[in-house]
Design goal:
Mean pLDDT: 92
CATH superfamily of the largest domain: P-loop containing nucleotide triphosphate hydrolases
CATH architecture of the largest domain: 3-Layer(aba) Sandwich
Number of strands: 6
Strand content: 5-15%
Strand order of the largest sheet: 3-2-4-1-5-6
Low-confidence stretches: 171-177
CATH topology of the largest domain: Rossmann fold
Distance between the termini: 10 Å
Helix content: 40-55%
Structural class: alpha/beta
Shape: globular
Largest sheet: 6 strands, parallel
Length: 300
């Protein structure tokens, strides 16, 4: 059975740095599981860290235009192809990212494409308000509802489709077993206060390193951007500044606060998965400990 390593955890915890070390140590290639980094030109604010990964093969960065929507099923299909390519090159797939649904699509598979339209259910749900649909979806899958961005939560069509999928999903194995893959999932965590400090530093650095100019360039075509880009952390708040809704200082503060909340939601999502082995990101022997686990995993 082929094997892959997965690095997960909240934003600003150090996932990419660890993934780079693992890739260099075990002759691996990175595969990004990030719902913002898939978009071209969204570089600085999204934290692609291109310099850090410049000497390592990296997949699923810059795969779609910021004017096009991008679904989990599209990501899943590209991830399958990328993993096959990495393994065919005799390299270890090192999957890194904080988008829970993207990680799940790789490890377990997401069978949304198998759920056919249920017109009777759709007609019934269409009579409900957005708020009522939100309540129904939250009752069906609290974690899924919590992972939605503001655009998805207010989009009646998307809410109906997600409810339709949850009510009609077939129990079909489309995940790791079918692809003959075994995963070692590693989680990084820090105290909330340390995460907040890291977020503050990172946001300020990204503004300093040209993030504002990046968003200004995107804003020139604001009306044509996909809602996924408009609602992405950092971009959303800075767009509000360029729209004249907030001052720059207010936008940056709102960005940081949104990142705090996002980090909390990420931990809630990942902690549900008991297969993930957690490590404190600031422990001195972090890499050596993880290296031993990977050695054992690869030899097993």
């Amino acid at each position: 059975m082929e094997k892959a390593v997965v690095i997960v955890g909240p934003t600003a915890v150090g996932k990419t740095s660890l993934a780079v070390k693992i890739a260099k140590e075990f002759d691996g290639a990175l595969l990004s599981a990030d719902s913002v980094q898939v978009f071209k030109t969204l570089d600085i604010i999204s934290g692609k860290d291109k310099e850090e990964i410049s000497d390592i093969s990296a997949f699923l960065l810059d795969v779609v235009s910021p004017f096009e929507s991008f679904s989990v099923s599209q990501f899943e299909n590209l991830a399958k192809e990328s993993i096959v390519s990495i393994i065919s090159s005799n390299k270890l797939p090192v999957i890194v990212g904080g988008t829970g649904l993207y990680v799940k699509s790789i490890v377990d598979g997401i069978d949304t494409a198998l759920v056919k339209p249920d017109q009777k259910l759709r007609d019934l749900l269409d009579k409900l308000s957005v708020q009522d649909l939100q309540k129904r979806l939250n009752a069906l899958d609290k974690d899924l509802f919590g992972s939605l961005n503001d655009s998805d939560r207010m989009n009646k069509r998307r809410l109906i489709r997600k409810i339709e999928i949850l009510k009609n999903r077939k129990k079909v194995d489309v995940g790791a077993k079918k692809r003959n893959l075994e995963f070692l999932q590693i989680g990084l965590e820090l105290s909330r206060e340390d995460i907040k400090k890291n977020i503050d530093v990172r946001v300020d650095e990204r503004i300093k390193n040209g993030g504002l100019d990046e968003v200004r360039n995107l804003f020139n075509d604001y009306d044509d951007l996909t809602p996924q880009v408009k609602d992405a952390n950092g971009y959303k708040q800075l767009f509000e500044h360029f729209l004249g809704v907030t001052s720059l200082d207010e936008a940056i503060l709102k960005w940081k606060l949104s990142e705090y909340k996002h980090a909390k939601n990420q931990m809630t999502w990942f902690k549900k998965d008991t297969r993930i082995k957690w490590f404190l990101a600031d422990r001195r022997d972090l890499f050596e400990s993880i290296k031993m686990d990977i050695d054992t995993f690869l030899k097993g």
